[in-house]
Amino acid sequence: MKPVSEPTNITLAVTGASGSIYAAEILRALAADTRVTKINFVASDSALRVFAEELHLSGRNDLAEKLLGAPCPKLQQHAETDIGANIASGSYPTDAMIVLPCSMGTLASIANGLAQNLIHRAADVCLKENRPLVLCIRETPFNRIHIRNMQLASDAGATIFPAIPTLYNHPQSTQEMARNFVHRVLAHIGLPQPNAYQWQPD
């Protein structure tokens, strides 16, 4: 599946796996990117608990604003129970969807076509419409069920993009590690960031 050239309408889903710092960094990057005109943001109930534990942010109300530090007019937040949201329909022109971090439970539901909430349904829509779907899985070690579900999702058209930070750029903080990973994810869907690190072996 080829990425859309400079996608403008992005769906970002956050699930209950550890890694809230990744979600915060990608949300900031999308909000700051002038090429992106719409962000549909969904955080699962489990993600809210992880946000509270890892970033000390509580509550669903104004979650995106808390993460960004200011309102973002191009961002629309949805509840995971809202199966009537725009991104639940294939007629809605989403350019790409990113799940970061993606829990093994979410992977399982997507891989097996179990659209139990808005995140699963929006991902299913991307697969059936042949739109880019990036699943940034976050778990170790993998058991055979995890590996089988990754294979199923990949065969259906998703990109499995494990949340593994790079070290060759000599990051000085966890935020730098998360930011470089986010830059790689965004480049993968056609949104290379101007300040992204590029390996220069020579």
From TrEMBL:
Tell me the keywords, alphabetical order: Flavoprotein, FMN, Lyase, Prenyltransferase, Transferase
Where along this sequence does the record place binding of FMN? 16-18, 44, 103-106, 138
**Entry EC number(s):** 2.5.1.129
Question: Catalytic activity, per the record?
Answer: dimethylallyl phosphate + FMNH2 = prenylated FMNH2 + phosphate
Care to name a GO molecular-function term for this sequence? flavin prenyltransferase activity
Where in this chain does the record put each Flavoprotein domain?
9-187
Pfam families with a match to the protein in the record: Flavoprotein
Q: Where does dimethylallyl phosphate bind?
A: 168, 184
Q: What does this protein do?
A: Flavin prenyltransferase that catalyzes the synthesis of the prenylated FMN cofactor (prenyl-FMN) for 4-hydroxy-3-polyprenylbenzoic acid decarboxylase UbiD. The prenyltransferase is metal-independent and links a dimethylallyl moiety from dimethylallyl monophosphate (DMAP) to the flavin N5 and C6 atoms of FMN.
Similarity annotation: Belongs to the UbiX/PAD1 family.
NCBIfam families given in the database record: ubiX_pad (TIGR00421)
The name this protein carries in UniProt is Flavin prenyltransferase UbiX
Q: Which organism is it from?
A: Tunturiibacter gelidiferens
Give the gene name: ubiX
